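<instruction>
Derive structure tokens from the sequence
<entry> Chain with its tokenised backbone below:
===
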Amino acid sequence: METRRRIAILGVTGFIGSGLPKLLAADGWACTGVSRSGGGDVEAVDRWVTPSDFDPAGHEAVINLAGAPIDRRWTKKNVRIFRESRVGVTDKLVHRIHDLPAAGRPNVLVNGSAIGFYGDRGDSVLEEHDHPGHGPLADLCRDWEAAALAGESLGMRVVVLRTGIVLGRDGGAFPKLRSIFRLGIGGRLGKGRQWMSWIHVDDHRRAILQAVRSPGLNEAVNLSAPEPERNAAFTRELASALHRPAILPVPGIALKLALGGFGETLLHSQRVVPAALKADGFTFRFPTLESALADLTS
């Protein structure tokens, strides 16, 4: 019987990570789940370890999606948690790989990041070669990526996933938005002119698989659908898909007062396009917001 290649997933019990092992197993991978509990019930994970016990040796690839949720106030304490769970975890992972003999190191590291890397950029169309923006989230993403890209000096191919707003039935932004709109209190955020770059969770997971498999993907990869939407248009399409009104705009000052730094990031404009994925031949199943919402509300 042919031995399957082994891959490790940090963040495997999260919204995105929990759906990856089944997809990877179908592609011939054996999956190690790295979880603080040391176990779980995620389908297609055949080995569980805690982060402190995780040994990258024997894994051809590692996917690192670890990171504490940032949809809360950006207090000093929370900012430390955001950084440690991203930059700190990634730095420790790369150092652990560094300590392995060269022949025993993974070939590929696919690491999380976010389109927050670009900061607030107005109407500019943003591809992977564009420079980082300014602000706490941009700084966090820049340092997060730098920690992962240090792995290139170890002979690994490293891909950092600049993820947009992920839409799925069971996690991410969509269930929260659906609840708000079903109550009839949904509406645009601020003036609604800011660009929102989004991606259906199925396309996101498929893109991660492509990042693992394809030598043509290196360093930064934008994980967002090819057609971003302005917030006002996004709101109208969501309201229409849910057959609810969208008549109560949320003032920008209210977002900032209620959510602090995170509220401010909701007003940032990021018109991101997936140039690297398209150049690598990736095909989106849900290229438009209309197609994504039709699937999510069916």
Notes: The domain at 55-296 is CATH 3.40.50.720 (Rossmann fold). The mean pLDDT is 94.
